[in-house]
Design brief:
Layout: H1 30-45, H2 47-56, H3 60-76, H4 88-106, E1 110-112, E2 123-127, H5 135-148, E3 152-156, H6 166-172, E4 176-177, H7 180-188, E5 192-195, H8 200-203, H9 220-228, E6 232-238, E7 248-249, H10 251-257, E8 263-264, E9 284-287, H11 304-328
Parallel strand pairs: 1-9, 2-5, 2-6, 3-4, 3-5
Antiparallel strand pairs: 6-9, 7-8
Helix pairs in contact: 1-3, 4-5, 7-9, 9-11
């Protein structure tokens, strides 16, 4: 059986190509779309429209028009996805719109150094990983879009792509398998690629080890950046560690369920579903100065010592910045 791509992590599962989903848009249904749009338009032109003006104020017509246009395109299949499954319109209009209030109102994310993300061309963003649940990756995606005006294509663990529903949503949001081949392809196309080299070791570490970076693996992300000749931007995230403080781990049950860990937090599982609500910590996401790779020869990615040195440089930069941000932080919950 052939496989889609070789994962960067030798312990990762290989996804059979037969199980890889198809990214073609649905068959057009113009009749249904036209009837629905006409029906809504007629309703809004009558008394319902006057009521909407009183309740929603001026400008609701434009928002309604845009919403109907979006709905029509989804029903007719008049939208594009790339060969990785990325649906730009759905990401901007739905996914990011749902995540933005969480970033701005709940975690009150302060973004620093967004100017260090190049306005165009390929770039690799490397960040620390923490928090039991990978909310830090999603908040970074919002930060890159809203503050650098670019889409972040995240390299995700293979577990993401074997979960029902999550697999499809991740693909449409621009995520892809964390392997060197995918990373290099996206970087050479001029995309912003995000990687969290600590993986499950980072997000699943005990609360006692918060803000202590775990091993960055063999430096596969650095090799991809070297081959593509793109800069590496270190990214340090403070605040995520305290959203779900992990004070224990149901290891036996986690192995039974095929999970890397099953956390015990101050609220989970003791409060049931309420325990899944993250604590409203105050976040800071800081992008550091880019580390150029285009000055190295084309075969530099084959030099293990150079790859190790660059990997260590990125890791030390992130760790040092984390310590600085922690010293500056007045309170876990802001104020």
């Amino acid at each position: 059986m052939t496989a889609v791509r070789e994962p960067a992590d030798p312990a990762a599962k290989v996804i059979p190509i037969e199980s890889a989903p198809s990214w073609s848009a649905p068959e057009p249904r113009p009749g249904l779309a036209d009837r629905l749009a006409d029906g809504v338009g007629t309703a809004l032109a009558g008394q319902l429209g006057a009521t909407a003006t009183r309740l929603l104020g001026k400008g609701w017509e434009q928002r309604a028009t845009e919403g109907l246009g979006f709905l029509r395109r989804r029903l007719t299949g008049d939208y594009e996805v790339d060969d990785f499954g990325f649906d730009r319109e759905l990401t901007e209009e739905v996914f990011l719109a749902l995540l933005r209030p969480l970033a701005e109102k709940y975690f009150r994310v302060e973004v620093r150094g967004a100017e260090h993300v190049p306005a165009e061309g390929g770039v690799l963003i490397v960040a620390n990983h923490s928090g039991t649940v990978p909310l830090d990756a999603l908040m970074t995606q919002v930060a890159v879009h809203d503050h650098a005006d670019r889409h972040l294509r995240m390299l995700a663990a293979d577990l993401v792509f074997v979960l029902p529903v999550v697999n499809e949503l991740a693909r449409k949001a621009g995520h892809t398998l964390a392997c060197n081949e995918d990373a290099q392809t996206l970087l050479e196309r001029g995309e912003v690629v995000g990687v969290w080299p600590e993986g499950f070791k980072g997000i699943g570490k005990p609360f006692a080890d918060r803000y202590k970076l775990q091993r960055f693996g063999r430096g596969g992300f650095v090799a991809s950046a070297l081959r593509a000749g793109v800069p590496i931007v270190p990214c340090s995230i403070v605040g995520a560690e305290e959203t779900y403080p992990m004070i224990g781990n149901f290891k036996a049950l986690a192995r039974l369920l095929g999970l890397p860990y099953l956390p015990v937090t101050p609220t989970f599982p003791w409060l049931g579903p309420l325990g899944a609500i993250p604590l409203p910590t105050k976040w800071t996401i800081q992008f550091g100065e880019p580390i150029p790779t285009d000055r190295y020869p084309k075969d530099a990615a084959e030099d293990p010592m150079l790859v190790f040195d660059l990997t260590d440089q990125v890791r030390e930069t992130i760790q040092h910045t984390l310590y600085k941000l922690l010293v500056q932080r007045r309170s876990v919950f802001g104020g």
